[in-house]
Specification:
The chain is 47% helix and 17% strand. By secondary structure, the chain is of the alpha/beta class. The protein folds into 2 domains: 4-235, Spore Coat Polysaccharide Biosynthesis Protein SpsA, Chain A (Alpha-Beta Complex); 237-293. Strand 2 (38-47), helix 2 and strand 3 form a beta-alpha-beta unit. The longest helix is centred in the last third of the chain and has 25 residues, at 269-293. The radius of gyration is 23 Å and the shape is elongated.
Length: 295
């Protein structure tokens, strides 16, 4: 069997302090000829860095450096990485962050289920594996919240909805879609699920950041929640608008009963009509949105 081509892409924004170490570690663990199943090429997606990230990456001999002229967001860098890996003929694309919190040794853990044809999209879960430091409370709660929402809407059991280590088959690379420059993990989980791909999680190790600065802060949820709403509305319009429409229609029916029974004679007929029509409009909008999202 011919060895698979695995393209590991590293999104980076002002990561001159760690990018060389990540590249060296990947090369150390996945030298050419080590595995009979696959060989690794490394690319860096420089998301508008103002430091020497690109220069250092080239010095370390990566296959390619894709540069964004300005900082667009981790989702945008992930999109560029997936597109570039596909254009390079990758059988598998792996995303790993540049901050060294995910261990390059775990790349094999997300690659092998694809090599063995057990999955099309593999996400490394820190919560199934091991976190080697005390994660800030707000980050842990935010992750649990986003993971819960993703699980509810997809029916998948997602434990880590914000992981930075993931891998995808060429089958998925040829059809993936990311419309937002944020929430890359949730976008890819939901997109892979909606495209009937096999999605799984595997346990991985997570370390404390020792260089650079995390983009996640207390402001992060307020920045991404509007995007999450858009993501779920786009991905699951029927699950949102039909229940909402039925609630309005039911409220209209209950209101009509109360009026006819004399318990709410102060409520006008217009209120009942507005509630019922609004409910029907929500359902109709959900059906149209569902058709549009599948085109």
């Amino acid at each position: 069997m011919q060895a698979k081509k695995v393209v590991v892409f590293i999104p980076a924004f002002n990561e001159e302090g760690s990018i060389a170490s990540v590249i060296k570690k990947i090369k150390e663990h996945y030298p050419v000829g080590k595995s009979k199943d696959y060989f690794v090429e490394i690319i860096v997606v420089d998301d508008g860095s103002k430091d020497k990230t690109s220069k250092i990456a080239r010095k370390e001999g990566v296959s390619r450096v894709a540069i964004h002229p300005y900082n667009r967001g981790l989702g945008a860098a992930t999109r560029t990485g997936l597109q570039t890996a596909y254009e390079m003929g990758a059988d598998i694309a792996v995303k790993i962050d540049a901050d060294f919190q995910h261990d390059p040794e775990d790349i094999d853990k997300v690659v092998m289920p694809l090599i063995e044809d057990r999955a099309d999209a593999v996400f490394g879960s820190r919560f199934l594996g091991k976190i080697n430091y005390k994660m800030p409370f707000y980050r842990k709660m935010g992750n649990l919240f986003f993971s819960f929402l993703t699980s509810i809407f997809t029916g998948l059991k997602i434990t880590d909805g914000q992981t930075g280590l993931m891998a995808f088959s060429r089958r998925y690379l040829s059809v993936f879609d990311m419309f937002s420059d944020y929430n890359e993990t949730q976008q890819l989980i939901i997109d892979a699920y909606r495209k009937n791909m096999r999605v799984i999680e595997v346990p991985v190790v997570f370390h404390k950041r020792t260089t650079g600065k995390s983009f996640i802060s207390l402001k992060y949820p307020f920045k991404v929640i509007p995007n999450m709403i858009r993501l779920f509305v786009h991905g699951f319009p029927l699950r949102i608008f039909i229940p909402l429409g039925l609630i309005f229609i039911l409220a209209g029916i209950i209101t009509a009963y109360l009026v006819l029974s004399g318990y709410a004679s102060f409520i006008g007929d217009a209120t009942i009509v507005i509630l019922v029509i609004s409910g029907m409009q929500f359902i109709f909008f959900g059906l149209i949105a569902d058709i549009a999202s599948k085109r």
